[in-house]
Amino acid sequence: MGTTEEVSKEMVNLPDHYARFKFEPIRFLVENYGAPVIIANIIKYIMRYDAKNGLEDIRKAKRYLDMLEKYEMKDPDWWKAGRPNG
């Protein structure tokens, strides 16, 4: 892996446990159930950040906010928010 900062970014933007799938779970869920799935994740990460993963959870919430913004703007690649070249 890399530095702690690089590892943290990997855990936020595309963790290995999701990268193995053709579709990231959030993409599947939102395309089938809509924006409330993104909103639920934002709430989850903000509510738990101080008790679980700290800054990593704040960064995850920010990624989901970016996804929500792109989704609402009808960007077909909304799910790539936060990734390099995303």
Give helix % range.
55-70%
Low-confidence stretches: none
**How large, in whole angstroms, is the Cα Rg?**
13 Å
Our count of domains comes out at: 1
Shape descriptor: globular
Rounded to the nearest angstrom, the distance between the terminal CA atoms is 21 Å
Number of helices: 5
| Beta fraction | under 5%
- Please provide the count of β strands: 0
Helix-strand category? mainly alpha
Give, in order, the helices and strands. HHHHH
Arithmetic mean pLDDT: 86
Sheet with most strands: none
Question: What can you see in these coordinates?
Answer:
It is a single chain. The chain has 86 residues and is mainly α. It has one domain (4-13, 22-79). It is 63% helix and 0% strand. It contains five helices and no strands. The protein has helices at 4-13, 16-19, 25-33, 36-48, 55-72. Helix 1 (4-13) runs parallel beside helix 5 (55-72) and helix 4 packs antiparallel against helix 5 (55-72). The radius of gyration is 13 Å and the shape is globular.
